[in-house]
Amino acid sequence: MSVREFVVLGTASQVPTRHRNHNGYLLRWDGEGILFDPGEGTQRQMLRAGVAAHDLNRICVTHFHGDHSLGLAGVVQRINLDRVPHPVTAHYPASGQRFFDRLRYATAYRETVGITEEPVDGDAAVLAETPGYRLEARRLSHPVESYGYRLVEPDRLRMLPERLAAHGIAGPDIGRLQRAGELRGVTLADVSETRRGQRVAFVMDTRMCEGVTALAEGCDLLVIESTFLDEDAGLAADHGHLTAGQAAAVARDAGVRHLLLTHFSQRYADPEEFARQARAAGFEGGLTVARDLDRVPVPKRR
Fold first, then answer.
1. Rounded distance, CA 298 to CA 202, Å?
2. How many helical (H) and strand (E) elements, i.e. helices and strands, does the chain have?
3. Residues near 185 by Cβ (< 8 Å), separated by ≥ 6?
4. pTM confidence score
5. What's the sign of the alpha-carbon dihedral 274, 280, 283, 286?
6. DSSP SS3 for 142
7. Which distant-in-sequence residues (6+ apart) come within 8 Å of 22 by Cβ?
8. How many CB atoms lie within 10 A of CB 170?
């Protein structure tokens, strides 16, 4: 059975707290795992969440501030220690190549797994095309170069039983029609409809910019930073971050189905205030104010 869920490993911003680890997130997508922004402590949080190194197929780093990348050294070494048998690909801003190199080889270890490095450059890029998804990146607005990521499942056809029955098509003939596109004068268009692919976006440290709205557009699940509350919008702009209300407004305007807020400043004691401000901004879809070790399913297809 396929599993599509977002596993939250850490939710703190620059400074961890007693209850919030530094960043770390895993998207389970059928048989693949994409690890986003492994901050300090990610390897231990993976253990607590039941995530193994063998679950990782890709690592996506948005930018090279420590709370988003200092755990990379431990994760890379764990991948090698466990001799992960499949390829692992790392995506990160090309301008941070020196930081990736230092983290990958931060200490001595036996390198048993070849990690493929595919850095991101330019304003937008398609990073990978697989049968199950397309992985995209968009430049964001932060004091250091930062990218958000978006996973898009291809649209497919859904066969409609009532139309198949009306045309007298059943059993093996359904497969023949799907392969050939036409059977006894009946086309696929006559007995099917487009099933829109699911979309998930991951948006970390950024001000409002075109990249944010492009990544969020039409997403089933949007994972987005909301470092500050709305009363501190000036601080958010100065430091290259979003507020809860801004993040929710993005989700509202983009038609997002489920909004997951994360990356919270240590200055706030009441996490529910993020939810209140998101609702005040007019977002009416599913809403999660992330806690460490949360597991958030990707919403089922419409």
1. 13
2. 11, 18
3. none
4. 0.92
5. positive
6. coil
7. 10, 12, 16, 39, 40, 41, 42, 66, 67, 68, 70, 71
8. 10
Active site residues: 67
Distances (CA, A) of 62 to 55, 121, 239, 300: 20, 12, 16, 27
| Cα distance between the two ends of the chain | 19
Q: Can you tell me the distance from the alpha carbon of 265 to that of 267, in angstroms, rounded to the nearest whole number?
A: 5
Rounded CA gap, 302 and 281, in Å? 25
According to the model, what pLDDT value does residue 157 have?
85
Q: What is the tens place of the pLDDT at every residue in 223-260?
A: 999 999 999 999 999 999 999 999 999 999 999 999 99
Residue 159, both tokens:
């066969």
In the predicted model, is pLDDT for residue 1 greater than 70? no
Whether the pLDDT of residue 65 is over 90: the answer is yes
Asked if residues 131 and 170 have their Cβ atoms less than 8 Å apart, the reply is no
